[in-house]
Amino acid sequence: MRQIRISTCFAVVALLINSQPAFAVLPLPKPREDVTKLTKPTVCYITEDGYELGLIDWDGKNDRIWMGDGKARFSGSAYWSPDGKRAAVVVYDGADRSYTPYVLNLETGDTQNLLEWLPEGVGDYVYPSWSPDGNWVAIVDTWRITNLILAANIFKVNIHSGASVQLTDFPRRNPAYGIPSWSPDGKKIAFGALEEPHLVEEAVRNNEVYVMDADGSNMVNISNHPKGDSYPVWSPDGRKIVFLSYRKFPSPKAWELYLMNPDGSNVERLSYNTHFEIGVDWSPDSKWIVYFGFSRDPNDPAPEGIYRMHVATGKATFIKRGVDSPTWVLAGKSRFLSVDPADKKKAQWGKIKAAGGNENSPAPQETSPEE
C-alpha cells in the first residue's frame, strides 16, 4: 500500500494514542478562494502530503489549492453543510499528534473550534458530518493504537449554541468505520461499526452498517453480513445508502462499492475492479458519487486518485491523480448546477431536463477529463 497519509485512508490505519488538548495548537489556515462565488460543480480533496486542501471542477479541470499554510495538516477533506454556509475541517498537529475540528463560516470567514464545546473525550474528534438543516455536526470521538480501536463513540454538537450530546455508548461496537451520515430528513444517522476491537485482517473483521435515530435511540444493524461492511453514506434524495464491503473477498482483495435501501434491502454491487474505493461522497442530485480509488496490486494499471461514477450505469471516470478524500462542494451556485455532460443548461439539482427526455433519461456517455 502507498505511504500512509492524513486522510480518509489514514483514518483506517493510523490514528495513534494521544491526549486531546483543551485548545488547538494550530489554527485553521485561511482560505485562498471565496467558495460562495463558485459557479461550477466542484470537488474538494486533500493533497498527498496532507498539508493542503484543493478544489477541482467536477470534470477534472481548473485544479487549484484552496487552503493550506505548510504548518497544519488535515484529517480528511472539508465537509460542507447542506445549506452551503459552512464547512467542517479537522486540523492535525504532528508535533503532539492532536486533532482539532473547526467549523468555518464561508460567508464571514469566522471559525469555531469545536473542542471548546465538546466534552473532553478519550481521544480525538474526527469524521465530522452535517445535519441537513446545518445546525448540528455529528462527530466521532475515537482512540486507537494503529488499527486497534480502543474506544469510539458518536457525539453531536449544535454549532449555534454549543450544546453537545453523546449519541452512543459502546462497550464493544466502535463507530470508527466511516463518517456518520445523516438521513436527508434529519431523523436518522447511519454509521459503520466494528463489532469487537481486535487485530485480525481488515477483510475478515465483522464490520457492520447501523442506522439509529438522531438522538441515538433505536439502533439497527442494516447490513447484517459476515463480511466487512463500512463507510455508509446516505444519498441526498434519501432513497439509497452507498457503502463499502468485502463481500466478494478474496476476489477481489479489495473494498467494493455497494448500494442498499435505508432498511438494508435490495443490495446492489456498483464497482467491479481490483481497486479499493474509499472516501465516497454523493452529488447533490443523487446521480453521481466521487471516491478515492487505490490498489495494493503493483500490476494494476488503473491510476490512484479521485474518480467520478455515474450511479445508474456504474461508469467511472478518472478525475485527478495522487489525491484523496473527495467531497462535493456545497457552496455558491455550484450546488444548484447539474453535472450531467449532456445537459447544456444550468438546471437545478434533481430537475435535469435532457433534450427530448427528463431526469430518467438514459445516462450519457462520458469522456475522460483532461488531466
Give your account of this protein's structure:
The chain has 371 residues and is mainly beta. It is 2% helix and 37% strand. It has one helix and 25 strands. The strands form six sheets. Strands 4, 5, 6, 7 and 8 form a five-stranded antiparallel beta sheet that branches. A four-stranded antiparallel beta sheet has the order 3-2-1-25, with no helix packed on it. The protein is globular. It starts with 7 loop residues before the first helix and ends in a 43-residue tail after the last strand.
Helix content: under 10%
Compute the CA-based radius of gyration. Answer: 19 Å
- List how many beta strands DSSP finds: 25
Largest sheet properties: 5 strands, antiparallel
Average pLDDT, rounded to a whole number, is 79
Total DSSP helices: 1
Shape: globular
Low-confidence stretches: 1-24, 343-371
> What fraction of the residues are assigned to beta strands by DSSP?
35-45%
Feature tags:
371 residues; mainly beta; five-stranded antiparallel sheet; four-stranded antiparallel sheet; 1 helix; 2% helix; 37% strand; globular; disordered N terminus; disordered C terminus
Ordered list of secondary-structure elements with their pairings:
Layout: H1 8-13, E1 42-46, E2 53-57, E3 64-67, E4 73-74, E5 79-80, E6 86-93, E7 98-105, E8 111-113, E9 124-130, E10 136-145, E11 148-158, E12 164-166, E13 181-182, E14 188-194, E15 207-213, E16 220-221, E17 229-234, E18 241-245, E19 256-260, E20 268-269, E21 276-282, E22 288-294, E23 305-310, E24 315-321, E25 324-328
